[in-house]
Specification:
With about 200 residues, this protein is an alpha+beta fold. The two termini are about 30 Å apart.
Length: about 200
């Protein structure tokens, strides 16, 4: 379980294809990965991955074909930066919202508007996910916990403060980019309960 509060940016140093997926290597010395244990969960651009081959500089992770097909990780190249968050430990602060690291789909950046102090991003999402997004609710974009400001059909808007713009990969986005989307966990379960009641 994660919170959507990014701890550091990691850099992809290698990305090797294999028969049923890929293995990537991420450099992130600021997180002191040598304190982790083999098999720990790390959110990489919002995707929960298993840390392997850990040392003081970084770690490796295996990506399944499903992960490559259904998330933005399939578009990574050597040198790409990714948002990182280690899994919660008992007693950690919950600064964002409950995030599982299970990506629901991809959201496409439609417009980017400079508001001076903040930046407004408008995203288009698949229709089947739009019903889980509500004004003042939470979403996770590339691992970042954000508050939804406005919803119109299958589009929604978020405002990015300067700190988040600078310290995460959201500040590198351009119109047309697609990011990993995880809808709010409670909204997903409420939607499922309503489906069962209507069946």
């Amino acid at each position: 379980m994660f919170t959507g509060i990014i701890q550091a940016l990691g850099k992809i140093t290698t990305l090797e294809s294999c028969s049923d997926g890929a293995r990537l290597r991420i450099e992130c010395p600021d997180l002191q990965p040598d304190r982790w244990s083999e098999g720990d969960s790390i959110a990489v651009a919002g995707c929960c991955l298993t840390a392997l081959d850990i040392d003081a500089r970084g770690f490796s992770a295996d990506l399944s074909g499903e992960t490559l097909d259904c998330t933005s990780l399939g578009g990574l190249v050597q040198g790409s930066e990714v948002n990182l968050e280690p899994a919660l430990a008992m007693g950690d602060r919950l600064g964002g919202h409950w995030v599982t690291g299970h990506v629901d789909g991809l959201a496409e950046l439609i417009t980017l508007t400079d508001l001076g102090d903040n930046t407004r991003l408008a995203f288009q999402v698949p229709d089947d996910l739009a019903r889980y997004i509500a004004p003042k609710g939470s979403v996770t974009l590339d691992g970042v916990s954000l508050t939804v400001n406005r919803v119109e059909g299958s589009r929604f808007e978020v405002n990015i403060i300067p700190h988040t713009w600078k310290m995460t990969t959201l500040g590198r986005l351009e119109e047309g980019h697609r990011v990993n989307l995880e809808v709010d966990l409670l909204a997903r379960y409420m939607g499922r309960l309503l489906e069962q009641q209507q069946a």
